Amino acid sequence: MRNAQLENGDRAMTRNLGNRYRYPAQRALIGESGQYKGNIEWVVQGSYSNSNGVVWQRAFARWIQSIGNVDEIRFDGDGAGVFSSGVINHIRTGKRPRTVCSEFSHKLRQILLSGGHCNEILDDALIQPTDGGTSVVIANQFLDALPFTVMRRLYPSGKLQELAISGSGNPYYETIDMATIEVSACGGTDQRTGAFPYSPAKRNYVRSILSRAGTTYLAVLDWTPARSHDDYVNDLATGSLVHSSTPSRQLAMIAKEVGASVLFSDIALTWGHMDVGVKEIPIDLYSNLGLTIIKSENTIKTKNLYCSIDGGQ
Ligand SMILES: C[S@@+](CC[C@H](N)C(=O)[O-])C[C@H]1O[C@@H](n2cnc3c(N)ncnc32)[C@H](O)[C@@H]1O
Known about the structure:
This protein has 8 helices and 11 strands.
């Protein structure tokens, strides 16, 4: 209790650490009626600033053809498969790569299955990719769906605090003593409050994809600007989509950790493979959508050693 900065009336009701933002955020994401488990009509209808229409499909198909021989394409967090089926259909040269799709929602997996274009459907993008050959992995507005919490650092002590929401809905920060965090799991910082999203899941996903044996091209299409403390709190209070953004700096840092190279990192619309016209898509909608392409080449699978009950052998 001593570390909490509570508003009047909340102190007596608040258990230490029990109100961490991550719990309601996780429920909102993947809880029983969460945004990726309950009513998924918004994904099917594409009623968000999606980047899966024909302009995007053409650009990615062109890029994949420019790579040459690609053995496998993996679409993570594939939704209803509009993007994956479109990309595959636009690939006109060479042999058709094996197509792997991953999707967390059971209902969306049924739709993917009926589409018939996925050779394999995984129920979680955190499942390790298969090794060997050349693989293209596309995370199209997927990283922002992964679980995260919100933290900040106190100045000048450097102490870490985690955002919590009291029983009566008031936000406050709890100090986490003795905590260490991975810098490359930290997203962009809100300049006003110091709040930043912290997502080990995001880091693990990117590292796991880039650690496969073989040649891997990982394309991450996602929102880049830092979100604010108020954005995170309002997502929960108003029932909007709970999500965190992914700055290109964060992806570059993870790439460096595993010895991979960043081939492209900019606003997606500036990518040479795009041929956008104002008539085709509302360009303003995508001015904050970043594209980062990372290439890794490993002769053997890189071991990601974290904690291990057998001593990490
Ligand atoms: C915003 S939608 C994007 C859909 C698709 N990529 C597109 O651009 O049309 C994010 C998708 O990621 C899925 N998702 C969330 N967590 C996932 C996980 N751990 N593994 C696989 N899919 C996941 C959600 O169910 C949702 O369909």
